[in-house]
Design goal:
By secondary structure, the chain is α+β, with helices and mostly antiparallel strands. The chain folds into 3 domains: 340 residues, TIM Barrel; 170 residues, beta-galactosidase, domain 2 (3-layer Sandwich); 156 residues, Sandwich (Jelly Rolls). Helices cover 19% and strands 35% of the residues. The protein has an 8-stranded parallel β-barrel, surrounded by 5 helices. Strands 16-17-18-21-22-25-28-27 form an 8-stranded antiparallel β-sheet, with helices on one face. Strands 33, 34, 36, 41, 44 and 47 form a 6-stranded antiparallel β-sheet that branches. The longest helix is centred in the first third of the chain and has 22 residues. The termini are far apart. The relative contact order is 0.09.
Length: 822
């Protein structure tokens, strides 16, 4: 028997070794991939200054070179007009190249024939600002847009006239044509062919057009857009259609979770697997059922909706981390996508008409949304406050901006044995994207909801026609919950970096290459491709291998000269430093700024925003000399580590705000409050008899304040000041309860379905006074409610949420420092 078990042990060991070989062995022998072009009916693709945008069957092309576009969704009409320019600058600094935006019909034409393009509906003004800051725009005018709006943005009056919207119903087409014409009037001289920013348009949204009759409808809408003046390089669709259609670019999407799902359990999603590229079957499944995940390889592989966050619904309180968000896109890049589109990259506030305009069950949808708040847990939130995901995605975007022209032309290759379980704790997921045996290795040891340990003795075998290459040469430990991109045979002006166990971040002024690493890393150069290597700081040289020490606050640097004599500088920083790094372009020159604030640039001026009680900000820069323009602040140089110059900025005098909470009172008349709540629930049940669930009652608070049972209402007095350096004030709210509604007088100005017991309010965005009072209405949860919350919130849901409480509210100023290169 002992011999049997020993034999079984040996057998299992051999099997395990064979599986490991399959998991980490990739056959990279390339197959021919002929690229077709000019097979779609696109429009004029050349601008007056000679720029040309085109495509082939794998990627987009800009001025004859592969182009990997990075697109971020921002709904201009959900953001205050006064904040547009700052929002555009923040998106640009985060590596966004294109802003995609819905245009809401029911917000712009609430009454038939009465178009309103004023204020934050001013599409033309928004396009002018995008043009000013060289940001491309991809319009998404619908007519049906979804966007978690009632009727998908179709006006109520339209639905009263057309009984068959989203078809070739003559009544519907009549008004759709007027809608496109109205938009066309706002976009005159704003198109790419005129030197403007608009390069593309998505027709409709989530409308499957495989059936001929629906395809004809899509073509009709596209023709209407063209008749309205939209002659553009690109037209796209976000839905499944015929395999051989020649009218639209296909776009795909993927999200970390599905808060629109009726399910109230934890969802593991395959979006975190590195594998052959596919779309997310859940998108739109609440309305249309599971969708086609097929990616058609005869079209450019582009993304329109890769979750930049997640919008909580009443019954599903999803809370996604920065890594959840980043890995959702990272895996798609690893799997072969050639353009990303984040939905959302900038949250906003829902338009409010005579009645709420948000999606809800009483308007025929499966989900109840917040009445106003469309924060989406986005990198830039509803009121312009950046989140941790802003920094996490900026690292990926900087890489895509500088290396995307190489990446787009590179094919993905995968191991024969792929990870199939969400709980795999001993396998690094891998792919390699190559062209002519050069490219990038993608690695992930991450899965949402799992805590995956480090994987020891990791090596990858790349099998090509010339043999097998092992990367790295010495096994390494791949970090827990980590992810990375490693370069493979990357040419630095002729000096070939065979591989590095550090991730490329960006390229500065064409000859400086910035990398980052989680620990010790090595850079291995191909012998015969360089003249000499000089190690300068925090690294050591052994023949063709540069080893970089484990980094914390200092940077490492070395130089390598190609055989032609071109000098390349390599800078290596820590991952934490990379999270704080922004690349700006000022007067044609690249500038690197490293700070824990948010950095943008407006012309020659660098703007540094820091949310801080003291106002102190530190930054490291390349080049080295800066001047501070603010009169109410001081700056001094505090260090130089042979790579970066460090500065510290302090205000001459920190401004003090004041915020005080009062009360925590219940309903004044509990009987009336109960009667009112019953009337709301009765109306919900009457309007949505098939969808209403009393264990998921939805928002009971209203656009106009009304007492409700079990509430706690807190009066908040605030006093704030602004000056040359303080640009705004953030109220940090910590509370327990089901929902919180914010009122200015009796008018609802903000709301939140509780998902993590906290909320940030930018007082300058919500109120037009420097001092005043607002109210917080916090409502209780019923323990019988069927609501999904994340693991970390379950005990709070049970023990805290039934007793609504404002636990703490504090005030933090947001400083703005203006700097200029010396």
């Amino acid at each position: 028997m002992r011999a049997f078990y020993f034999s079984l042990f040996l057998f299992l060991a051999v099997v395990q070794q064979a599986v490991a070989q399959q998991q980490y062995t990739i056959n990279t022998i390339d197959k021919e991939h002929p690229l077709a072009t000019n097979f779609l009916k696109m429009g004029t693709n050349q601008s007056p200054d000679g720029n040309v945008l085109s495509y082939n069957s794998s990627y987009l092309i800009r001025n004859g070179k592969p182009w990997f576009p990075v697109m971020g969704e921002m709904h201009f009409s959900r953001v205050a007009e006064a904040d547009w320019e700052e929002s555009i600058l923040k998106m640009k600094a985060a590596g966004i190249q294109i802003i995609s935006t819905y245009i809401f019909w029911n917000y712009t034409e609430p009454e038939e024939g009465q178009f309103d393009w004023s204020g934050n509906r001013n599409l033309r003004r928004f396009l002018e600002l995008c043009k000013k800051h060289t940001m491309y725009v991809w319009l998404r005018p619908g007519p049906w847009v979804h966007a978690e709006l009632r009727n998908g943005g179709l006006p109520d009056w339209l639905l009263a006239k057309s009984k068959s919207p989203r078809t070739n119903d003559p009544v519907y087409l009549h008004y759709a044509e007027q809608w496109f014409n109205a938009i066309g009037g706002q976009c005159k001289r704003m198109l790419f062919k005129d030197g403007g920013p608009v390069i593309g348009m998505q027709i409709e949204n989530e409308l499957a057009f495989k059936k001929p009759v629906v395809y004809e409808h899509m073509k009709k809408l596209k023709q209407m857009a063209a008749n309205a003046g939209f002659d553009l390089p690109y037209y796209s669709a976000f839905a499944q259609g015929p395999d051989n259609q020649d009218e639209f670019l296909y776009m795909l999407g993927a999200y970390p979770d599905s808060p629109w799902s009726s399910d109230t359990k934890k969802q593991h999603k395959s979006t975190y697997f590195i594998r052959t590229l596919e779309a997310d079957a859940d998108i739109g499944a609440d309305l249309f059922g599971k969708v086609d995940t097929k990616v058609r390889n005869t079209y450019p592989k582009l993304g329109a909706e890769l979750g930049g966050g997640m919008q909580p619904t009443y019954h599903r309180r999803v809370d996604v981390s920065a890594k959840d968000i980043a890995l959702n896109t990272f895996t798609k890049v690893a799997s072969g996508i050639n353009g990303v589109g984040y939905y959302m990259f900038h949250g906003g506030l829902d338009p409010v008409g005579k009645t709420p305009l948000q999606e809800s069950r009483i308007t025929g949808y499966p989900n109840d949304m917040q009445l106003i708040n469309y924060d989406f847990e986005a990198p830039i939130g509803a009121m312009g406050i950046v989140s941790d995901s802003y920094n996490e995605l900026r690292m990926l975007n900087l890489f895509l901006d500088d290396y995307g022209n190489q990446l787009a032309a590179e094919q993905p290759f995968f191991p024969a044995q792929k990870v199939k379980t969400f709980h795999s704790a001993d396998t690094v997921q891998v792919s390699v994207r190559l062209k002519d045996n050069a490219g990038f290795i993608f690695l992930s040891n991450y899965q949402r909801f799992e805590n995956l340990p480090a994987v020891n003795n990791f090596q990858l075998k790349l099998v090509s026609g010339s043999g097998t290459d092992v990367v790295p040469a010495r096994p390494v430990s791949f970090p827990e919950n980590g992810y990375a991109v490693w370069p493979y045979n990357l040419s630095l002006h002729g000096a070939v970096l065979h591989y590095a166990t550090a991730q490329p971040l960006c390229i500065v002024n064409q000859s400086t290459y910035v990398f980052f690493t989680d620990g010790e890393s090595e850079f291995v150069f191909q012998p015969g491709t360089f003249k000499h290597i000089n190690a300068a700081a925090n690294c050591k040289l052994n023949d063709n291998i540069v080893t970089v020490n484990r980094l914390e606050n200092a940077a490492a640097t070395f130089s390598v000269a190609s055989v032609t004599g071109h000098i390349n500088t390599v800078i290596v920083i820590s991952r934490q430093q990379a999270l704080q790094t922004t690349k700006l372009n000022i007067s044609g020159k690249d500038v690197i700024v490293m700070t824990d604030g948010t950095v943008t640039t407006d012309g020659p001026t660098i703007l540094l925003d820091k949310i801080s009680t003291t106002g102190e900000a530190t930054l490291k820069v390349i080049p080295h000399e800066l001047n501070l323009l603010n009169k109410d602040a001081h700056m001094k140089q505090t260090g130089f580590d042979k790579v970066f110059t460090q500065y510290t900025i302090t205000p001459a005098a920190a401004l003090k705000g004041n915020i005080v909470m009062h009360g925590g009172s219940g309903a004044k008349d509990t009987v009336k409050a109960k009667l009112f709540q019953d009337s709301v629930l009765h109306s919900y049940a009457a309007l949505a008899p098939k969808r209403f669930n009393p264990l998921q009652p939805g928002p009971l608070y209203q656009l106009k304040f009304h007492d409700l049972p079990g509430e706690r209402v807190y009066k908040i007095d605030y006093q704030i000041k602004q000056n040359d350096i303080v640009k705004g004030w953030i109220a940090n709210v910590h509370y327990a309860g089901d929902v919180v509604a914010v009122y200015n007088g009796d008018k609802l100005v903000y709301d939140q379905f509780n998902y993590n017991n906290s909320m940030k309010l930018k007082l300058n965005s919500l109120f037009d006074k420097s001092d005043g009072r607002f109210a917080l209405q916090i409502l209780p949860v019923n323990l019988k409610y069927n609501i999904y919350v994340e693991d970390g919130m379950r005990s709070k849901f049970k023990n805290e949420w039934p007793n609504p409480t404002l636990q703490q509210i504090t005030l933090t100023p947001e400083y703005r420092y203006k700097l200029i290169l010396h």
